[in-house]
Every structure is written in C-alpha cells, then in structure tokens.
Amino acid sequence: MTSMILPPKQPAARRFVFVAMVLACVVLSPLAVLSGYGLDVITEIMIFAIVAVSLNLILGYGGMVSFGHAAFFGLGAYATVLISTRYDVSPWLGLAGGVGTATAAAIVIGAFCVRLGGVGFFMMSLAFAQLLNSGAIKWRPLTGGSDGVGGLLRPELFGFDLSDAGPMYLFTAAGLVGVLLFMRMVIASPFGHAMVGTRESSLRMDAIGYQTRRIRLAAFAVSGAIAGLGGALYAFYNGFVSPDALSFGMSGMILLMVILGGKGSLLGPVLGAGLFLSVKNIVSTHTSHWLLIVGCIFVACVMVCPDGILGFGKRLFRSGERR
Amino acid sequence: MDLFLTQLLNGLVYSVLLFLVSAGLALIFGLLGIVNLAHGSFFMLGGFVALSVTAATGSFWLAMLLAPIPVMAVAGLIEVVFLRRLYARSQLDQVLLTFGLSFILTDVTETIWGKGLSSLQEPQGLREGVSILGNVFPAYRLALLAFGFICAFAIWLVLERTRAGSMVRAGVDDARTAMGIGLNVPALRTATFAIGGGLAALAGVVAGPLLGVFSGIDVEVLIPAFIVVAIGGLGSLRGALIGSLVIGFADTLGKAYIPGVSMFLIYFAMIGILLVRPYGLFGQDPAGG
Amino acid sequence: MLRLENISKAFGSLVVSNSVTLDVTAGQRHTIIGPNGAGKTTLINQIGGQLSPDSGKIFLHGQEITRLSAPLRARAGLARTFQKNTLFQALSVFENVRLGAQAAHGRTYDLFRSWRSDTGVLAQAEQAIEQMNLGRIAAQPVGKLSYGDLRQVEVAVALATSPTVLLLDEPTSGLSPSETAQMIDVLRALPREISILMIEHDMEVVFSIADHITVLYYGEVIASGAPRNVADDPRVQEVYLGAPQ
Question: N or C of chain A: less Cβ packing under 10 Å?
Fold first, then answer.
C-alpha cells in the first residue's frame, strides 16, 4: 500500500559510500594542488557558503526575504573576536560565544520580524541589521568603531595549528560539510516540510493547526545560528572584524550568493558563493570597476536566470531532452 | 531657547529633505508595487549633476532646474528596460534588480565625478542669516523649508486636483481595473518612476549645501527614507509626510540632546511603531482585513 | 458538538452576521443555505478563526473557542475547506495531505528525523487520500491539477487532520455534474464520528446529504430544521422564489 503513494526511496547505503568518496576527493584535492594563497581563497569561499546556506534556509525554504542577514554573520564574528581577545579565553570559547550570540539575537530579532510578511519582513530585518551596524560604529570602547577590532589568533586543533592554511582549510571544509549534512536533515524533517508549507500558504497552515509564527521564528533562529557559525569562522580566518561585516552591502552580497546559485536547493548557495567570490577575486585584480560588475551580475541574474544557475542549468537540460 | 529653536528648524529642514525622497519612494511603491533600492542613487546623481552645472554656469538655480532632468531620463529608462518585465514576478526579484542597479549607478557616478566629498555652494543671497524675533536663522534653511512646503503642496495638488493625479490614484488602488477603464497604466508607471526619481534628484540638489555631495550618500539617505515609508505605511503619501516629520525630528533632536543613543533612535521609532501598527501608520494589510 | 450563540459581525455599516445561533449535533450533516451575500462564508471564517466575531460565543465540544487562534481550533478538532485555492501549490497532493496529518499527529518541531519515519502520519495521510479516491494523482503537484481535483484535495487535507467537526465551504461549486455526484458519494461515505457543517448552493447536493438545514438571509437565520420542514417554510420560499411580502 505504501509503495503506491510514496515516492520511491533510493537505496541508501551504496549512495552514501559514493557521495562520501566524491566528497573526500573534492575536499582533499585542493590540498595537493594549491598553495597557501589558493587554500585561503577557497577557505573564504566555504565560509561564505555556510552563511549563504543559512540564508537559504529561511529564504528558499521558508519564503522569508531577509535583507539583514549580515546581522547574524557580523554578530558571530564580533562576539568571537571580542570574547577571545578582551577576556583572554580560548578562541574555541569565542567561537561558541559567537554562535550563541548570533542565535540569541536571531530569536529576539526574529520575534519582531516574523510578525510581518513580505515587504514588512524585509524592512524590519534591514532595520535591525542597520541598528547593529550603527551600534558597532558608535560603541567605540567595545568594538573599536569603524576601525574594527582584531588580534584574534587562530588556536590549535588536535595538535594542528590552524594558523597554517592547510589545517584551517580542512577545519572550514569540515564545518561546511557538517552544515550541509545538517541542512539536508532539516529539509527532510517534519519541521522542514512545515517550513515549506508556511512558505506556500500560511493561511492554510494556520487552518490545519500549525502555529506559523512559531515555525517561522524557529527557522529564523536556526538560520541565525548557522550564520553566526559562519561569522565565527570568518573571525578565525581574518582575525579581525569591522562594521562592514554588519553592513547593508554585506547583506546584499549574501543574498546575491543565494540567488545566483539558486534558492531552495541544498547546493545552490554553495555554488553561488563560489562563483561570486571567484569572480570578485579575478576581477578586482584587473579593474577598479568591481561595483559595476556586481551590479551587472545582479541585473543579469534577475533578468536571465531568476531561479539561479542551478535552475538555469536544469531548464537547459530539460529543453535539451525534449529535442 | 535659541538653540532649541535652531534645532527645531534643523529638524524641519531634515524632514523636508526626507519627504522629497520618501514621497517618490511611496508613490513608486503604491503604483508599481516596487521597493526601489536605487532611490538613494537618484538622490546622489542629482547632487553630482548639480555640481557640474554650477561649475559650468555658476548658477545654483539653474542646477536646481536642470539636474533632475537627466536623472528622470535615467529612471524612466530603467522602468522601460527592466522593471516593466518584472511586475508579474516576485518582490524579491524587483528588490534585487534595483539593488543591482544602485551598484551600477554608484560605479558610473564614481567614474564620472570621482568619490570626493564636495559641497555645493548656497545660492547668492541666501548665504546670510535672517533675523526673526531676535533669533538669527540661516536664510538657506528657511528658503529650503518654504520650498519643501511648496513641493508638498504641489504634489498634493497634482494628485488630488488633476486628471493625471486621479489616474495615478486609480492605478494605486487597482492597476487591473484602471487598465480596464482605459488608462494607460504602462505610461503612468514610467512617468511615476521618472517623477519619483526626479524628486529624489531635486532633494539631492537642495541638500547639497547641507549634507555635501559624495559617493555613499545614496545609502545614507536611502535607509532613513525606507524607515520613513515603513513608519508611514508603504505607498501612502500622507504616511510619507508624517513619517518624515517623525524621523526628521527624532533624528535631529536626538543628536542634539541625547547624542549617546541618537544613532539608534530612528530604528527604535520604526520598530516601536511597527509593533503597534505592523503596516505603518497609514498602511493597509495587503491581505485585506 | 459545535454551537454558535448570538454571533454578530459587521464590516462598517454592513452587517454580515446578525445574532446567529446554531447547533451542530454529533454526527449531524448540517447545511447552511442562503442567497449570495447572505454571509455564509463570513460565518465559516468566524467559526474557523480566520475572522473574529464582534460579539457572541462559539463552543466546540462544550469548550468556548471564541478567542482561540485558528491553529488551536484546528488542533481541537475543527477542520475546514476554503472556496478559493490556498493549497500548497508547489507540493504534491500527497504532501499537501501529509502536512494535514502531521499537524494533528506529528512532531512538527523535530529537525532530526526524516518525514518518512513518522509512520502514523503517513498512514493517516494515506487513509485520507483513499477516502477521497485521490490515489491516482497523489504524486502530482497541486499547481497542475484540474479544478475538480482541487476541490477533492481540499477535503482530503481537512480530513487528514482527523477532525471531529468538518466545515465545508461549497465543496461542489464549479464541479461538473459527474464530479458533483462523486463528491456526494464521498461525503456520504464519511463516518458519523465526523459532524459536518457545510455551505452549499446546489439543492440536489443539499437534499442528498443534509439532515438539518439552516437558512441564512442577510446575516440572519430565518429558518432552521429538518430538510422537509425548511423547504415548506413560507419565509424560505419567499426568499428563494422572490414572492412579494
């Protein structure tokens, strides 16, 4: 009876082994090929991939257009740097504090934002991020104002010094893989499905017995926590954080990565982050018109492939099949 | 007492500038349903074009007259080339597009004029102070105030008393019905976007002597203008007026009397108002109810 | 089971519910009829919690629910369908129905398990799909369904929440005669553990399902009783046939 209605499930074990092997190759091959600088570039891409993945959870699956996701990224980064340097404790505690701060902020900010739908949500999330950005600039004694704060030294992990590019790269890769596995689980969970239901029709969700605000808030908190992890890793990576991490522009960049890759898919945001930062690294060495290029990417993305590169690829693939 | 009066005047002047920017933003949202993230760029462009005009002719008045024209052309072009294709799409796409355009406009501006902070000179004859009831006020600010009220009145007059205005109001209420009764909604949308952009540019010109002209002012103006329309209610002109006064005074008086928290005051105002009225003071629940 | 006491609601000067009192007893098939603008859907919206009445009380199983939010009413056993399509467009029929079942039986805040692992929810969803004979289209996305199929999915989603009281807002509106006959069969086959309150225009449907009819006219109950008695009521005939007063 079950098999008539349920979509068939793929054989799990063989697929798992295959995916794990491919993953191992993908993660390990740069270590063999690339120099320290190359590894650093990929590490940065993976950090932003984590942040983009976190935004995709509420944007792609939850249908909440946030223009303030930099708030949680920035808070995670600030808290990590401040806790580790000002209180002279292990950066690992700083990392935990970064994630915790971002999560707590997401719960508070989310409580305000999820009351509103559509444009209201967008405005509210933007306002909170700007509020934090102003705070970081204004509260000089704590945050160093617009100069930012630095001085975080990467710690050791299992005897490897994360100050070296290789171990830092592996550590970040582990973080990204962990986040992706977690996301995959959440998307397939009863909660993930409830989130998609809320995106599709919150009136209906209400009528069949879901407290949609609570679902949206929970999603927002999880998303904030992951963005906070991204921020904490960024603090490790950079050792330094400035109000730019909390800025309007940063929120827009994160949003662009998600849209560029393809929202509502597991790997789209990773692809988007990779592509965006690669283009940035290549272009900004050749020209000062980086803003123009970013703008054109935005416009092209919206006009030509609004469902992102993944969606665009799928469409191409399908139209090819038809012929 | 003087100081307080001066602060009141400054608050009012800032409100006028905010209104010129947010009125366009509100009209555009009302008629086109678009949250225009490039609106600050129009403001910035207006200032830079005015710099060039004054440099060439030496006349501030000519700059006020001419600077909005190219900006209106750019805005109209944007509507025709890009936005027109996006009305059926999600709000997210529209937001992303205008955000992308703001990057392009910033880059173009910096390429033509550079980043540099420059200031427009007040026009001849408005550089002195004017004495009223024993208090001396800067003449330019007083003139700006008068100009702002004239503009607000003119906008109101056009919307309420002219045929074009009633068409815009019909379009705001219900684009499909407006189309059904024979209004040229596409042309109306282009015109609204261009005029909204022109108003922002005009604000950019008259704000030049006070705030300066520089790359980056676009975001500095855009965010408070957003807060204004969020407070007033998206798409509501009356809301934009009231919101401008709230934010203009909150910001100015806050900076003068409670400088420690002034930077946050406008955000707190917005969050507080949206808590009580989620769709703003004059906004309506899009779901109806 | 469900009782309304003096429910009143006005939009400005337009009175849409005028002191409506009605009782849905256990197992009853209760139908509300009335000409357009009688305030039928507004009444359903007040019972479902999408609107709140200006005054009056609503009871479900003897408990007052007048101030309860829509989701909490749903959890208390009240399910409803909508006339306009508010289903989850991008999701399959099965997933639409499964979300209904998960609301009532599942662990919605569980992030760490697959949706497949909750077999109780799956069984409940499958039962609702079978009750409505939707097995053939279970895997199709709702956005691509015909109007007739959508009406049936509406009912299936509501049934999946295991309601004790089912509110149906014109379940056969816009259906072809054969689809209507199918819907009648399906509704008649529902177990009597479920009480039904239904708005309906089609008198054939009304008389083949209802055992109690309430007539609403400009927000006011003008007759209520067994189908025979209501049909013979002079005021009802006046309203429906437009006879002069």
Answer: C
Q: Which pLDDT band holds residue C245 (cuts at 50, 70, 90)?
A: very low
Q: What are phi and psi of C166, to 5 degrees?
A: -115, 125
Whether residues C156 and C189 fall in one domain: no
Q: Determine contact, residues A31/A166, Cβ cutoff 8 Å.
A: yes
The answer to whether the beta carbons of residues B123 and B61 sit under 8 Å apart is: yes
pLDDT at A166: 80
The 10s digit of each residue's pLDDT in B201-221 is: 999 999 888 888 888 888 889
Size of interface A-B (CB pairs under 8 A): 113
Q: Is A213 touching C (CB cutoff 8 A)? A: no
Which one-letter amino acid corresponds to residue C233?
D
Residue C173 and residue C73 share a domain: yes
CA-closest candidate to residue A2, choices C129, C189, C93: C129
- In the block, tokens 């980086």 appear at A290
Same domain, C143 and C186: no
CB atoms within 10 A of CB A170: 19
- For residues A262-290, give the mean pLDDT: 88
Q: Please report the pLDDT score of residue B234 as a whole number.
A: 82
Q: Quick one: average pLDDT of C114-122?
A: 86
d(CA B227, CA C97): 41
Among B244, B183, B232, residue whose Cα is nearest residue B31: B183
DSSP B162: S
Give percent above pLDDT 70 in chain A: 95
Looking at the partner chain, which of C87, C108, C138 has a beta carbon nearest the beta carbon of A191? Answer: C108
**Which element (helix H / strand E) includes C23?**
strand C14-24
Give A 7-36 residues with CB within 8 A of chain C. Answer: 7, 9
Helix axes C147-160, C119-131, angle to 10 degrees: 140
Q: How do residues C62-104 score in pLDDT, each as one tens digit?
A: 899 999 999 999 999 999 999 888 899 999 999 999 999 998 8
Mean pLDDT to the nearest integer, A99-117: 92
> Nearest 5°: phi and psi at C30?
-105, 125
- DSSP alpha helix (H) spans, chain A: 2-5, 12-33, 36-56, 70-86, 91-113, 118-138, 140-143, 165-188, 190-200, 202-207, 212-238, 248-261, 268-286, 290-304, 308-322
Structure tokens at C81: 């369908």
DSSP type of residue B122 = P
Q: In chain A, what are the domain boundaries?
A: 40-244
Give the pLDDT mean for A257-274: 91
Residue C179 has pLDDT above 80, yes or no: yes
- How many distinct structural domains can be found in chain B? 1
Cβ neighbours, 10 Å, residue B15: 26
High-pLDDT (> 70) share of chain B, %? 92
| Nearest chain B Cα distance for residue A141, angstroms | 13
Q: Which of B35, B106, B110 sits opposite A122 (nearest CB)?
A: B35
CATH (domain of C64): 3.40.50.300
Q: Measured in whole angstroms, how far is the alpha carbon of residue B267 from the centre of its chain?
A: 18
pLDDT tens per residue, range A43-83? 999 999 999 999 999 999 998 989 999 999 999 999 999 98
Give residue C184's pLDDT: 92
Distance CA B46, CA B63 (A): 9
> Both C66 and C3 in a single domain?
yes
Best A3, A199, A208, A213 member to test C by mutation, with max C CBs in 10 Å, is A208
- Helix or strand holding residue C168 (H, E): strand C165-169
